[in-house]
Write a structure and sequence with these properties.
The chain has 304 residues and is α/β, with parallel strands linked by helices. Helix content is 37%, strand content 23%.
Length: 304
């Protein structure tokens, strides 16, 4: 039996049309260029790339908000170009956007979370079951009677995620969900996404430009000029520091520090992802570290 695939793109290409003031097409801009990739069911995927790399355009194809110019997108085996499957596709692959205010429409949290199932014609008792489960999954039960307007940015985004969960999706696509949040809010949202993946088995596709958020992924796709420029596990991708820099992307700060210490002669493996890993790598190297500092190869500024 093969590995179950939640998402497949097959030679996906997407062109945006450029129109003049009279509506005539004057040009076409290629945003996605012959991209083929697989997302395994139950996995946590991160898609990285600078602005204009095509990552958000790709995200919108994964639940049929956009349609291929060429190629094919399959969501749980359903073709996004098949109009008869559109409703099913959008139930199976829910989308969470950058700005939670654009997705929250209810005056009370629990009403907002129940809006989607209500539109599907789900019986009232089942709606409330789903609302309860969704709010519990994102740890927002205590706020169910609150107005969304009184919530922090991170809490609002968790309500948005709860609204998608209530639709019972197999996959959630988060399109830069933390871009408008402070560090605390970002941590809340990523923690929620990881919990849904680990505890509920929901496939998570995270579009982000925060490298630290991607270290929790099972697999990373790096986009550049509409193509997949790199892919692999977080350790594999972030080990390629110079290649990431060439794509105008950073790596996690601790990864960069470990890379620079390695270049200065310390015996540290590439692909360090966390402070704990760096601490373990430095254990037993106190003498080498002291010697390098004495020689001026490493200074206290390297650790700031």
């Amino acid at each position: 039996m093969g590995i179950a695939k939640m998402i497949q793109t097959l030679h996906l290409t997407h062109d945006y049309e450029v129109q003049d003031e009279e509506g005539n097409i004057t040009d076409r801009v290629r945003a996605i260029d012959d991209v083929s990739l697989d997302v395994v069911r139950g996995s946590f995927i991160a898609v990285l790339g600078h602005n204009g790399s095509g990552k958000s355009t790709l995200a919108k194809h994964l639940n049929a908000l956009l349609y291929p110019t060429e190629g094919q997108v399959l969501v749980d085996g359903m073709d996004t170009l098949d109009d008869s499957q559109l409703w099913n596709i959008r139930q199976e692959a829910g989308m969470v956007f950058q700005n939670p205010d654009n997705q929250i429409i209810g005056q009370v949290v629990e009403e907002d979370v129940g809006f989607g199932p209500e539109n599907l014609g789900v019986p009232t008792d089942e709606i409330w079951n789903r609302v309860n489960e969704a709010l519990e999954a994102v740890e927002m039960t205590a706020f169910r009677k609150k107005s969304p307007n009184r919530l922090s940015g991170g809490q609002k985004q968790r309500v948005s995620i709860a609204g998608v969960i209530a639709m019972r999706p197999k996959c959630i696509i988060l399109d830069e969900p933390t871009a408008m949040l402070d560090p605390s809010g970002r941590a809340e949202v990523i923690r929620t996404a990881r919990k849904l993946n680990e505890n509920e088995g929901i496939t998570i596709i995270l579009i982000t430009h925060y490298m630290e958020e991607a270290i929790y992924a099972d697999h990373i796709f790096v986009m550049d000029r509409g193509k997949v420029a790199m892919q692999g596990t977080p350790r594999e991708v972030f080990s390629r520091v110079d290649e990431m820099k060439a794509l105008h992307l950073d790596v996690p700060q601790v990864t960069l520090l470990a890379h620079e210490l390695r270049q200065k002669g310390l015996d540290i493996p590439e692909g360090i992802l966390t402070g704990e890993e760096l601490g373990l790598a430095l254990t037993g190297q106190k003498e080498a570290l002291a010697a390098a500092m004495k020689q001026g190869k490493i200074t206290s500024w390297d650790f700031r």
